[in-house]
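Example for tutorial group B:
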């Protein structure tokens, strides 16, 4: 019974740590996204709360669903799942986070490789792994859309010149471009076909894709619909601007490649040296593992290495 109570306490602790880690990570992501959006988004683009698309339940288990509905970070996690375009429920993601955290914590406590507070921090990192995976998946999807957008705008421009209306041109674009951009444009066209005004469905597009290029497109089309002008020329100019911006981002990435490589080498070098020392003289290195003070030093060194990696990447991460 005491062992059962202990594991129950550990489960509750990991749940709290996972919830806190998710909230903090999402707050950082949202703040960064809001900063980028503020730079490029015109004032006439506002978020809208209503949508024709209805979200699924948080979990198929009724009790678990009620519990999740009380958590404040769940709506933000739901948005992340939609932006990453994965067919997961919120309940599944949180269950995966809890499972990863509990397994790593149990392993760390049983093997006694790290000090107590280090085991908790290691479990928190493991619990945040599914969230990190979703963020990376979303960013990869955004990069794919950025690459497809100029070609999609060119196709949209040619469809407009051929005499098609904007909704019909966007439907043809969704059928031809393929990939993630086709999925998002198809959602916009479906909302319009279900009765929403074109202005409203265009305004909802930056909510699903909070990207500068998409905001440029929506702002340009909405402005043209109010003031008039040649939509074909507007789309061609916008496509060229996005291509030039992508070229500038590529130049910046090439110039900062040395800094990113430095971060990778400095992070991997201690691990490589430790591996060589273990092969040459394992007893010399095992003193750190068997000594309690050595475990603390190893844990502090790992934390310093991880912090240095993120600091270097933050320095070379230049927004364009």
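The residue assignment follows.
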């Amino acid at each position: 019974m005491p062992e059962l109570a202990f594991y129950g306490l550990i489960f509750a602790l990991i749940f709290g740590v996972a919830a806190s880690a998710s909230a903090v990570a999402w707050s950082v992501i949202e703040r960064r996204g809001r900063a980028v959006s503020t730079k490029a988004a015109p004032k006439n683009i506002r978020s809208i709360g209503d949508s024709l698309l209805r979200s699924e339940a948080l979990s198929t288990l009724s009790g678990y669903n009620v519990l999740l509905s009380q958590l404040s970070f769940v709506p933000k996690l739901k948005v992340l799942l939609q932006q990453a375009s994965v067919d997961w429920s919120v309940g599944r993601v949180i269950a995966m986070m809890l499972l990863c955290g509990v397994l790593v914590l149990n392993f760390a406590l049983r093997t006694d490789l790290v000090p107590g507070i280090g085991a908790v921090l290691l479990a928190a990192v493991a619990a945040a792994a599914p969230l990190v995976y979703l963020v990376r998946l979303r960013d990869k999807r955004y990069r794919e859309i950025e690459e497809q957008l100029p070609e999609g705008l060119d196709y949209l421009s040619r469809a407009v010149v051929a005499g098609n209306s904007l909704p019909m041109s966007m439907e043809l674009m969704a059928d031809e471009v393929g990939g993630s951009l086709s999925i998002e444009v198809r959602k916009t066209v479906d909302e319009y076909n279900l009765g929403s005004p074109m202005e409203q469905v265009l305004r909802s597009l930056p909510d699903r894709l909070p990207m500068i290029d998409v905001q440029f497109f929506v702002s340009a089309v909405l402005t043209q619909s109010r003031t008039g002008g040649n939509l074909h020329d507007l789309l061609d100019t916008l496509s060229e601007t996005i291509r030039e911006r992508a070229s500038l981002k590529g130049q910046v990435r090439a110039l900062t490649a040395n800094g990113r490589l430095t971060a990778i080498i400095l992070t991997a070098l201690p691990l490589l040296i430790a591996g060589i020392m273990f092969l040459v003289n394992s007893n010399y290195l095992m003193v750190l593992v068997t000594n309690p003070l050595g475990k603390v030093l190893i844990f502090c060194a790992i934390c310093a290495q991880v912090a240095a990696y993120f600091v270097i990447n933050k320095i070379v991460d230049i927004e364009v």
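The chain has 14 helices and no strands. Compare this with the pattern of hydrophobic and polar residues in the output above.
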